[in-house]
C-alpha cells in the first residue's frame, strides 16, 4: 500500500492583488506579459521578413533601406523597437497593479499608433508584403494590451466606488 503525499491546496487569497482581489492582478500581468512578448516576436519577424522583399538586400548593401540611409542610428532604432516590448513584458510582472495598467495602456497605445502610421504609410506607397502583415499583427497585439489596461482601470475604479 502506497501512501500518497497530499499537495498543499492554494486558496484564492494566496494570490491577491493590492486591492484584495484574488487572481485578477496575476491574470492581467500574465496576459499583458505574454502579449508584449508576442509583440516583440512579431516585430522581429517583420524585420526579418523585410529582407525577403525583392530588392531589399541589394538596397541594404548599397547603404539604404526604403530610401533612407542605413546608419548606426537606424540599427539602434530597430533594436529599441524590439527591446521595449521585452522590457515591458518584464516590467509588467514587477510593477504595482494600478501603475502597471496605466503604463501598459500608454505604451500599448503608443506602439499601436506608431505601427498604424507605418502600415498606412506603406499601403499608401503601394506596398503590402509579409513584413507589413507582421507589423499589423504587432499593432493589433499592442492595442489589445492597451485595452487590457483600460478595462483593468475601469474595473478597479468601479470596485473603489462600490467599496467607499
Largest sheet: 2 strands, antiparallel
* Percentage of residues assigned to helices: over 70%
User: Rg from C-alpha positions?
Assistant: 21 Å
Ends apart, CA distance between termini: 56 Å
Low-confidence stretches at least 5 residues in length (pLDDT < 50)? 10-14
Please state roughly what percent of the residues sit in beta strands, choosing from under 5%, 5-15%, 15-25%, 25-35%, 35-45% or over 45%: under 5%
* Total number of beta strands: 2
The number of helical elements comes to 5
Average of per-residue pLDDT values: 84
What general form does the structure show?
A: elongated
Question: How would you classify the helix and strand content by structural class?
Answer: mainly alpha
Helices and strands in order, then pairings?
Elements: H1 24-50, H2 56-61, E1 64-65, E2 68-69, H3 72-94, H4 97-124, H5 130-163
Antiparallel strand pairs: 1-2
Helix pairs in contact: 1-3, 1-5, 4-5
Question: What can you see in these coordinates?
Answer:
By secondary structure, the chain is mainly α. It has one domain (25-159). It has five helices and two strands. It has helices spanning 24-50, 56-61, 72-94, 97-124, 130-163; strands at 64-65, 68-69. A two-stranded antiparallel ribbon has the order 1-2. It is elongated and about 55 Å long. The termini are far apart. 23% of the residues are buried. The model is unreliable at 10-14 (pLDDT under 50).
Amino acid at each position: 500500500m502506497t501512501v500518497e503525499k497530499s499537495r498543499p491546496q492554494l486558496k484564492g487569497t494566496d494570490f491577491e492583488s493590492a486591492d484584495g482581489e484574488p487572481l485578477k492582478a496575476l491574470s492581467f500581468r500574465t496576459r499583458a506579459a505574454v502579449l508584449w512578448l508576442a509583440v516583440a516576436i512579431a516585430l522581429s519577424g517583420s524585420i526579418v521578413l523585410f529582407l525577403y522583399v525583392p530588392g531589399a538586400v541589394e538596397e541594404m548593401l548599397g547603404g539604404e533601406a526604403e530610401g533612407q540611409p542605413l546608419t548606426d542610428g537606424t540599427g539602434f532604432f530597430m533594436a529599441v523597437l524590439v527591446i521595449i516590448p521585452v522590457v515591458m513584458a518584464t516590467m509588467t510582472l514587477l510593477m504595482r497593479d494600478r501603475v502597471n495598467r496605466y503604463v501598459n495602456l500608454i505604451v500599448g497605445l503608443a506602439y499601436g499608433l506608431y505601427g498604424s502610421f507605418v502600415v498606412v504609410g506603406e499601403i499608401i506607397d503601394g506596398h503590402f508584403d509579409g513584413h507589413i502583415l507582421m507589423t499589423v499583427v504587432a499593432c493589433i497585439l499592442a492595442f489589445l494590451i492597451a485595452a487590457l489596461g483600460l478595462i483593468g482601470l475601469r474595473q478597479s475604479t468601479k470596485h473603489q466606488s462600490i467599496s467607499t
